[in-house]
């Protein structure tokens, strides 16, 4: 294991950063308590150490730095409060701040506290003023609306009285104002004092308010309501709501009490109101005066608040970052365990070997003027380290494709290296059209050119995903231009780019739609498919045969690559049995069947033979001793087939049987004479760190290993057939793509063209564009992407990839922004 | 319809059942309670809760916390979840969900009426009301002087109106009256809810009848114990028991004549499901009875989640969350008053 960590490995391949994980080591850091904070903050800036939680059994508030974390949370809360206030006031926090703020958290805490108190006070004052203001507004409304009631009631009462005087038969209706009662009751002794209450009630409650009043007083009230057109700010809640002005007339003290209670219960604000008109007018003018006064005060308050928020906004981002950093530092410190002497913190963590943390540590120790510097030492452990690939912005998207399936086991061969080329290539085989390729290229170039701008802002889900994979799409576009040129397709239109078609009509009688009558007049078309095939009757049989065979060739090549990678893994981890009992029989099996098929395909292309390959392959199994006849491609083919068949049959038990027995023997060798070691193992279990070293004592269950091997073998043998068949999807999707694009071209664009009508042409072009973008550029891209993904995850990676590692996630300030809440 | 609900339940109830099961997964676990019980200050509790689903509700609270703030915020979360479910629900689930809140409505009505009787401020009383049991005209309750007015003025508009048929009297309100009113209302409510669940049929009826029967029996026992030594007559007492449940009808006859706690115990021990509850208590003790009942209830509520395609999970979830909030309140109170030794007295672990 030590050798593995030192990074030599198999030594067969040139140093490739991406091919294997960076060598990692477990380091222990002993930091004096006084310089701990500074040291951890330097480590966070370096971002190359993944701390292990040594206090996982302690709950968050029992840890050493719980108090500081609480303080940070409190500061974060204040910052959130500021942010909310700034959002309400419409002030944006400036991203770049001009002044460098103090880095001292204690000062910042005090400052934030002061600012919060100030802001809260300003808000409270503002609320008070606002409340007074909205009360006055409501009062004014009441004065206006209720004044209208009274004046209209007076006029109608006067009119009625006149009417009654003339007719003497006044009938009471519900519209009759109650005020007339008062005037009509001639007898002064019977005169009842009618009281009234005026105010505003929320409109949605007005119905139930009226009902409640009616019920509570048994109908002995008179209620008038008027709708206020514009929403009014409620003095209590400060929210805008729709309200009605009401006036209730009642008689008697008990009714008054009830009405008052009901008003309170319904949140109806009451205002004093005077019956006499001149006093009303006086009140209105008074209220208006006070309103304008209050308005100026309010504005001044708002301005003050705005200024305060602006100053906060200038430094907000900086503070926010500082608090986040602080919090993460204390969270990290909480993962360290306190030394017995309580003077040092002891931490453990994974870090890549290349990292020179010594610098950061020395700096930290120097800066904090601590008498003892931090000590840093490498621990040896059998625990599996995390996997860490140093990716850049180009390779990271491809690595993510692999990681989505499973993170590589520590130091195992990384399929991500090959994915960079094979993934876009397999995609392009299914998406071969250089017109569509150029569209994709333009789209992704937009993303790449505006990279800096887009990276700094928050994108929605789909855009974010596209943006993250921009370099994958770039490669996909480039490759699909390449395959498009080979297929000679440009929105399904063939072009004669590289030279003229090799074929021409023998005489005038031959039509375009058939190859009959064409003769070869020039050299073979130099690159890709001859354009003359397009639209001919034999186009499909020709292209199908071409693409089908090409798919098998590509598939066999990629599967072979996968098996060869398993060889590199075996040599790297020094597991000989995997080479002899897995790699060799596997490669023999695959190549004796499908490698042979590939060979036949190439031979057939070279020789131009008419041999039927289906027939050859099928009868190779059914009757291997029969003569091949016309289907013979090379001399001695029958003998070769017999040998290959024999090899394939031998390699199956070879894969199945020896490995479990060899493993069993190795296990027994290792444990000879170790039967009495139970004591040592209990010793070890006392020390949690060395617990993993005792891997020699694991159970060896032969039946389990055997069943496992059997499953593997069956999977491989069946998989060799089904995976090869699976690669035919390359042909199928490419066929679907070209057929779809030719349908859109011929049935939409050419059809519209044929009408010779500008309107139809425009409609046709629009339909064509939408179909091309929607179906071909979006849907087809997605489906080809998914199929390429599947070919990598299943057909390629199952040959060698374990993918049971875990990712290196260092403590780093650079990653802080990502975890935005 | 029994047996076929699996086929059609998910058309309307599937989404919400998934939601409620997700909510249930967010309930605090025994490990959480262990940690909470070790807290030294309310800030510790906040810190611990911030790692749970309560986090977003508590994170913006300024630092000197009060128990009431914690409870208020936790209840707010429950209310938000309830409202979300109610918005998404279709008939008959929405009616079922509304039924769950009627109990709180009754409690709120009683709280306001009692409070007004003792001349408390209405606004202050409103703050104490459970938010799930609020209705529009609740503040108007203060106007009423007697039951008849109470009904005629306010409650006739609320869903509680039908339950009032048995307690309309013109007597003035006093403590005894109100308590009887509460129990009469509750009896009518439970019976109505029970009938509603029976009407729904299927697994809902099966599971809810079990849960409601337990609730009814618990109330019967509590009424009996609380009315010992008061002027409530046996017949009146008998009238307050709900007409269903395991104890109905013979247990009720026996409970109605009980004169002390040991007699109650004698009656209850005849019923196997309650035997275990009473066997935990020593003779003559009634303090721990509440906790024992709560524990039994929690056990039954958790079992409701074992079966699929029924509405019982909604009821069970609401109840469990309320129990959790009660637990949090107790723990916070103990921590705030430095009575940590008593933390375990009243906390009912849910998982």
From TrEMBL, chain A:
<feature type="transmembrane region" description="Helical">
    <location>
        <begin position="587"/>
        <end position="607"/>
    </location>
</feature>
<keyword id="KW-1133">Transmembrane helix</keyword>
<dbReference type="InterPro" id="IPR002490">
    <property type="entry name" value="V-ATPase_116kDa_su"/>
</dbReference>
<feature type="transmembrane region" description="Helical">
    <location>
        <begin position="758"/>
        <end position="779"/>
    </location>
</feature>
<protein>
    <recommendedName>
        <fullName>V-type proton ATPase subunit a</fullName>
    </recommendedName>
</protein>
<feature type="transmembrane region" description="Helical">
    <location>
        <begin position="639"/>
        <end position="657"/>
    </location>
</feature>
<keyword id="KW-0375">Hydrogen ion transport</keyword>
<dbReference type="InterPro" id="IPR026028">
    <property type="entry name" value="V-type_ATPase_116kDa_su_euka"/>
</dbReference>
<comment type="function">
    <text>Essential component of the vacuolar proton pump (V-ATPase), a multimeric enzyme that catalyzes the translocation of protons across the membranes. Required for assembly and activity of the V-ATPase.</text>
</comment>
<feature type="transmembrane region" description="Helical">
    <location>
        <begin position="470"/>
        <end position="487"/>
    </location>
</feature>
<feature type="transmembrane region" description="Helical">
    <location>
        <begin position="425"/>
        <end position="449"/>
    </location>
</feature>
<dbReference type="GO" id="GO:0046961">
    <property type="term" value="F:proton-transporting ATPase activity, rotational mechanism"/>
</dbReference>
<feature type="coiled-coil region">
    <location>
        <begin position="105"/>
        <end position="132"/>
    </location>
</feature>
<comment type="similarity">
    <text>Belongs to the V-ATPase 116 kDa subunit family.</text>
</comment>
<feature type="transmembrane region" description="Helical">
    <location>
        <begin position="552"/>
        <end position="575"/>
    </location>
</feature>
<keyword id="KW-0813">Transport</keyword>
<dbReference type="Pfam" id="PF01496">
    <property type="entry name" value="V_ATPase_I"/>
</dbReference>
<dbReference type="GO" id="GO:0000220">
    <property type="term" value="C:vacuolar proton-transporting V-type ATPase, V0 domain"/>
</dbReference>
<keyword id="KW-0472">Membrane</keyword>
<keyword id="KW-0175">Coiled coil</keyword>
<keyword id="KW-0406">Ion transport</keyword>
<keyword id="KW-0812">Transmembrane</keyword>
Automatic annotation (TrEMBL), chain B:
<dbReference type="GO" id="GO:0005774">
    <property type="term" value="C:vacuolar membrane"/>
</dbReference>
<keyword id="KW-0406">Ion transport</keyword>
<dbReference type="InterPro" id="IPR002843">
    <property type="entry name" value="ATPase_V0-cplx_csu/dsu"/>
</dbReference>
<dbReference type="GO" id="GO:0046961">
    <property type="term" value="F:proton-transporting ATPase activity, rotational mechanism"/>
</dbReference>
<comment type="subunit">
    <text>V-ATPase is a heteromultimeric enzyme composed of a peripheral catalytic V1 complex (components A to H) attached to an integral membrane V0 proton pore complex (components: a, c, c'', d and e).</text>
</comment>
<keyword id="KW-0375">Hydrogen ion transport</keyword>
<dbReference type="InterPro" id="IPR035067">
    <property type="entry name" value="V-type_ATPase_csu/dsu"/>
</dbReference>
<comment type="function">
    <text>Subunit of the V0 complex of vacuolar(H+)-ATPase (V-ATPase), a multisubunit enzyme composed of a peripheral complex (V1) that hydrolyzes ATP and a membrane integral complex (V0) that translocates protons. V-ATPase is responsible for acidifying and maintaining the pH of intracellular compartments and in some cell types, is targeted to the plasma membrane, where it is responsible for acidifying the extracellular environment.</text>
</comment>
<dbReference type="Pfam" id="PF01992">
    <property type="entry name" value="vATP-synt_AC39"/>
</dbReference>
<keyword id="KW-0813">Transport</keyword>
<comment type="function">
    <text>Subunit of the integral membrane V0 complex of vacuolar ATPase. Vacuolar ATPase is responsible for acidifying a variety of intracellular compartments in eukaryotic cells, thus providing most of the energy required for transport processes in the vacuolar system.</text>
</comment>
<protein>
    <recommendedName>
        <fullName>V-type proton ATPase subunit</fullName>
    </recommendedName>
</protein>
<dbReference type="InterPro" id="IPR044911">
    <property type="entry name" value="V-type_ATPase_csu/dsu_dom_3"/>
</dbReference>
<dbReference type="GO" id="GO:0033179">
    <property type="term" value="C:proton-transporting V-type ATPase, V0 domain"/>
</dbReference>
<comment type="similarity">
    <text>Belongs to the V-ATPase V0D/AC39 subunit family.</text>
</comment>
<comment type="subunit">
    <text>V-ATPase is a heteromultimeric enzyme made up of two complexes: the ATP-hydrolytic V1 complex and the proton translocation V0 complex.</text>
</comment>
<dbReference type="InterPro" id="IPR016727">
    <property type="entry name" value="ATPase_V0-cplx_dsu"/>
</dbReference>
<dbReference type="InterPro" id="IPR036079">
    <property type="entry name" value="ATPase_csu/dsu_sf"/>
</dbReference>
């Amino acid at each position: 294991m030590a050798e593995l960590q030192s990074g030599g490995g198999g030594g067969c391949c040139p140093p490739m950063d991406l091919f294997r994980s960076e060598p990692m080591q477990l380091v222990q850091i002993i930091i004096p308590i006084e310089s701990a904070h500074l040291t951890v903050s330097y480590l966070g800036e370096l971002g190359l150490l993944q701390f292990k939680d040594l206090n996982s059994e302690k709950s968050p508030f029992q840890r050493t730095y719980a108090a500081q974390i609480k303080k940070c949370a409190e500061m974060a809360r204040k910052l959130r409060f500021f942010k909310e206030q700034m959002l309400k006031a419409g002030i944006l926090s400036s991203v770049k701040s001009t002044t460098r703020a103090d880095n001292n958290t204690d000062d910042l805490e005090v400052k934030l506290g002061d600012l919060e108190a100030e802001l809260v006070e300003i808000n409270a004052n503002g609320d008070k003023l606002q409340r007074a203001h909205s009360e006055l507004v409501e009062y004014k409304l009441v004065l206006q609306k209720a004044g209208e009631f009274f004046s209209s009631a007076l006029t109608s009462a006067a009119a009625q009285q006149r009417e009654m005087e003339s007719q003497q038969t006044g009938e009471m209706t519900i519209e009759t104002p109650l005020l007339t009662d008062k005037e009509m009751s001639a007898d002064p002794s019977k005169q009842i004092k009618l009281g009234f209450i005026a105010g505003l009630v929320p409109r949605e409650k007005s119905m139930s308010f009226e009902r409640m009043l009616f019920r509570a007083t048994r109908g002995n009230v008179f209620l008038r309501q008027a709708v206020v057109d514009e929403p009014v700010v409620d003095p209590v809640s400060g929210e805008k709501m729709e309200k009605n002005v009401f006036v209730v007339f009642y008689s008697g003290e008990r009714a008054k009490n009830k009405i008052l209670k009901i008003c309170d219960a319904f949140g109806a604000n009451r205002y004093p109101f005077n019956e006499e008109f001149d006093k009303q007018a006086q009140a209105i003018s008074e209220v208006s005066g006070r309103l304008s006064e209050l308005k100026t005060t309010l504005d001044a308050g708002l301005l003050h608040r705005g200024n305060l928020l602006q100053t906060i906004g200038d430094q907000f981002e900086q503070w926010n970052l500082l608090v986040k950093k602080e919090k993460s530092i204390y969270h990290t410190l909480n993962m360290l365990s306190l030394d017995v002497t309580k003077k040092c913190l002891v931490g453990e963590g994974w870090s890549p070997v290349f990292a020179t943390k010594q610098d950061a540590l020395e700096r930290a120790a120097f800066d904090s003027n601590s008498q003892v510097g931090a000590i840093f030492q490498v621990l040896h452990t059998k625990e599996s380290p995390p996997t860490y690939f140093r990716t850049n912005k180009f390779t990271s998207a491809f690595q993510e494709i692999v990681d989505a399936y499973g993170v590589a086991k520590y130091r195992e061969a990384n399929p991500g290296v090959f994915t960079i080329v094979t993934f876009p290539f397999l995609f392009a085989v299914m998406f071969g059209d250089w017109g569509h390729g150029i569209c994709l290229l333009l789209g992704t170039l937009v993303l790449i050119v505006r990279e800096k701008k887009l990276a700094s802002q928050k994108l929605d889900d789909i855009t974010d995903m596209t943006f993250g994979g921009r370099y994958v799409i770039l490669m996909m576009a480039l490759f699909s231009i390449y395959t498009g040129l080979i297929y000679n397709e440009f929105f399904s239109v063939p072009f004669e780019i590289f030279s003229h078609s090799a074929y021409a009509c023998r005489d005038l009688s031959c039509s375009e739609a058939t190859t009959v009558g064409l003769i070869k007049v020039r050299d073979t078309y130099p690159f890709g498919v001859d354009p003359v095939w397009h639209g001919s009757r034999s186009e499909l049989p020709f292209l199908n045969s071409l693409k089908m065979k090409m798919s098998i060739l590509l598939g066999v090549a990629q599967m072979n690559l996968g098996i060869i990678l398993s060889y590199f893994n075996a040599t790297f981890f020094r597991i000989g049995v995997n080479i002899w009992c897995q790699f060799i029989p596997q490669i023999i099996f695959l190549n004796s069947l499908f490698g042979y098929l590939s060979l036949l395909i190439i031979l057939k292309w070279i020789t131009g033979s008419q041999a039927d390959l289906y027939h050859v392959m099928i009868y190779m199994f059914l009757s291997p001793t029969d003569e091949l006849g016309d289907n013979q491609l090379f001399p001695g083919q029958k003998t070769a087939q017999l040998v290959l068949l024999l090899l394939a049959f031998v390699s199956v038990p070879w894969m199945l049987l020896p490995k479990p027995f060899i493993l069993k023997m190795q296990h027994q060798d290792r444990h000879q004479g170790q039967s009495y070691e139970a004591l040592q193992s209990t010793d070890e279990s006392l020390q949690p760190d060395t617990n993993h070293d005792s891997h020699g004592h694991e159970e060896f269950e032969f039946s389990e290993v055997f069943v496992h091997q059997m499953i593997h073998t069956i999977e491989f043998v069946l998989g060799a057939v089904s995976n090869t068949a699976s690669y035919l999807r390359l042909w199928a999707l490419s066929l679907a793509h070209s057929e779809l694009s030719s349908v859109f071209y011929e049935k939409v664009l050419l059809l519209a063209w044929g009408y010779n009508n500008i309107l139809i042409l425009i409609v046709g072009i629009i339909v064509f564009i939408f179909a091309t973008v929607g179906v071909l550029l979006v849907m087809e891209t997605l489906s080809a992407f998914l199929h390429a993904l599947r070919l990598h995850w299943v057909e390629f990676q199952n040959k060698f990839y374990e993918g049971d590692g875990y990712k290196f996630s260092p403590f780093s300030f650079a990653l802080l922004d990502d975890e935005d809440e | 319809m029994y047996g076929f609900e699996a086929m059609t339940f998910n058309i309307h109830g599937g989404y919400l059942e998934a939601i409620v099961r997700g909510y249930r997964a967010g309930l605090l676990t025994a490990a959480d309670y262990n940690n909470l019980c070790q807290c030294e200050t309310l800030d510790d509790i906040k810190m611990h809760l911030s790692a749970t689903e309560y986090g977003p509700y508590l994170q913006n609270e300024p630092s000197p916390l009060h128990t009431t703030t914690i409870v208020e915020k936790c209840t707010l979360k429950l209310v938000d979840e309830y409202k979300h479910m109610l918005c998404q629900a279709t008939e008959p689930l929405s009616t079922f969900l509304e039924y769950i809140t009627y109990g709180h409505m009754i409690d709120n009505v009683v709280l306001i009426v009692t409070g007004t009787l003792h001349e408390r401020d209405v606004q202050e009383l409103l703050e104490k009301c459970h938010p799930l049991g609020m209705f529009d005209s609740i503040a108007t309750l203060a106007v009423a002087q007697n039951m008849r007015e109470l009904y005629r003025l306010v409650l006739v508009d609320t869903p509680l109106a039908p339950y009032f048929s048995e307690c309309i009297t013109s007597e003035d309100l006093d403590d005894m009256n109100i308590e009887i009113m509460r129990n009469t209302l509750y009896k009518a409510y439970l019976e109505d809810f029970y009938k509603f669940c029976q009407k729904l049929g299927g697994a809902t009826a099966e599971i809810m009848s079990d849960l409601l029967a337990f609730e009814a029996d618990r109330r019967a026992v509590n009424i009996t114990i609380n009315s010992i030594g008061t002027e409530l007559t046996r017949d009146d007492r008998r009238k307050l028991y709900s007409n269903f449940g395991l104890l109905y009808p013979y247990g009720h006859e026996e409970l109605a004549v009980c004169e002390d706690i040991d007699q109650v115990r004698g009656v209850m021990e005849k019923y196997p499901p309650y035997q275990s509850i009473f066997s935990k208590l020593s003779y003559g003790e009634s303090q721990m009875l509440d906790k024992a009942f709560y524990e039994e209830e929690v056990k039954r509520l958790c079992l409701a989640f074992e079966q699929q395609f029924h509405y019982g999970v909604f009821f069970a979830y609401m109840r469990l969350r309320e129990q959790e909030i009660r637990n949090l309140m107790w723990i916070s109170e103990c921590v705030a008053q430095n009575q940590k030794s008593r933390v375990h007295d009243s906390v009912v672990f849910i998982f």
